[in-house]
Specification:
Elements (H helix, E strand, L loop, with lengths): L7 E4 L2 H14 L6 H6 L3 E9 L5 E5 H7 L20 E3 H10 L1
Bound molecules: zinc ion.
Length: 102
């Protein structure tokens, strides 16, 4: 779990888990046990990112962010802004910390 910023976890309902498992099984070679899958805690994890330059804010899948982020190089992920193209997009918690210090 990252310690410099928070992520948002949304747990799936049983119906959502059933749907997800059944969709997976339509294409998968190794089928999952749907009932066992439903008994597990499954969640979607997202993160709110905000641009230090223009204030553009968006919520994105944390999977995508964690893949491009090297946590040994920086304390938090940074990316390019979809709105102003500056490399100033940081997690919302980091944004608030930086803006609060100024
Ligand atoms: Zn921006």
């Amino acid at each position: 779990m990252p310690k410099h910023f928070n992520t948002i976890k949304r747990y799936l309902s049983d119906d959502e888990k059933r749907q997800r498992a059944e969709e997976y099984n339509e294409y998968a070679f190794d089928k999952v046990d749907v009932e066992a899958f439903i008994r597990k805690d499954i969640f979607d994890e997202t993160i709110i990112l905000k641009c230090l330059n223009c204030g553009f804010q968006e919520e994105v899948d944390y999977d995508i962010i964690s893949e491009m982020w090297n946590e040994f190089q920086s304390d938090y992920p940074e990316s390019y802004c979809a709105n102003c193209n500056k490399p100033d997009v940081v997690p919302l918690d980091v944004y608030n910390r930086i803006k609060g210090l100024k």
